[in-house]
Amino acid sequence: MLPLTLIRYMDKMRQLMASATSNGIIDQARSEGRTVLSEVEAKALLASAGIPVVEAKLATTADDAASIADDIGYPVALKIVSAQITHKSDVGGVVLNVENADAVRTAFGEITEAGTKADAKATIDGVSVQRMAEPGVEVITGMTMDPQFGPVLMFGLGGVLVEVLKDVAFRVVPITQRDANQMIHEIQGFPILEGHRGAEPSDVAALERLLVQLSEFIEAHPDIAELDLNPVFAYPKGAVAVDARIVLAEPN
């Protein structure tokens, strides 16, 4: 067993490395006059805090995208990266289940062309490449800034269901594990997480940890104005965010 002093030192070093990563990403966006982080940046920021996300890597050329896909394994998802294009699917900026390098190169061209057609003035930074995650129960979590209460954390069923059913629970940050448990149990769709019609139950404890981690992350980054993880795939063991969006507060 490692000495307690060494364990504390290692924890402190991890915290310092995460802080350096966070500051670098946010400072880069600020220096470019951006308040919206790319998916690649948002996921790197979240991962530095230990929040489970499907890693996304930025490809600036078709060959670059193919090389990344070869490294991470197929099938992959490709998404356009542009500060001016927020609704990627609506403009043809997302291609899923790409199975090989040639298909990746083709998809890269189609995505960048679709982005240019959607907004000729948009700056296309490239395409994010990520491995397709195993499907699970889709949930959503995120944060908005309330003018009276400050950051408010949200949890509910994810995907299109959140827009249709609006079945969500809210808590003011910071939250405890007990708060997280209550949020999850409050939604009307909780029976889906319990394992509806013979399905395996989702890992509620993992979702609780995710909510508490997000609360701590939000407290540590007061310059974040909005945050969305949608969808988060909940599995019988564990949970992972497939897509992430972070918006910084406007500079004073």
Short description:
By secondary structure, the protein is of the alpha+beta class. It contains eight helices and ten strands. A hairpin with a 3-residue loop joins β5 and β6 (about 150-155).
| Net shape | globular
- Low-confidence segments: 1-20
Beta-strand percent range: 15-25%
Give the % helix: 40-55%
Number of E-state strands: 10
Describe the structure.
The chain is α+β, with helices and mostly antiparallel strands. The protein is built from 8 helices and 10 strands. The strands form 2 sheets. Strands 5, 6, 7, 8, 9 and 10 form a 6-stranded antiparallel β-sheet that branches. A 4-stranded antiparallel β-sheet has the order 1-4-2-3, with helices on one face. The longest helix is centred in the first third of the chain and has 28 residues, at 4-31. The model is unreliable at 1-20 (pLDDT under 50).
How are the SSEs ordered, and which strands pair?
Layout (H helix, E strand, L loop, with lengths): L3 H28 L7 H10 L8 E3 L2 H11 L3 E6 L12 E5 L2 H18 L7 E6 L5 E10 L3 E8 L3 H5 L2 E5 L4 H10 L3 H6 L8 H17 L3 E11 L4 E3 L2 E5 L4
Antiparallel strand pairs: 1-4, 2-3, 2-4, 5-6, 5-8, 6-7, 8-9, 8-10
Helix pairs in contact: 1-2, 3-4, 6-8
Name a few traits of the molecule:
D-amino Acid Aminotransferase, Chain A, domain 1; six-stranded antiparallel beta sheet; alpha+beta; single chain; 25% strand; globular; four-stranded antiparallel beta sheet; 8 helices; disordered N terminus; 252 residues; Dna Ligase, domain 1
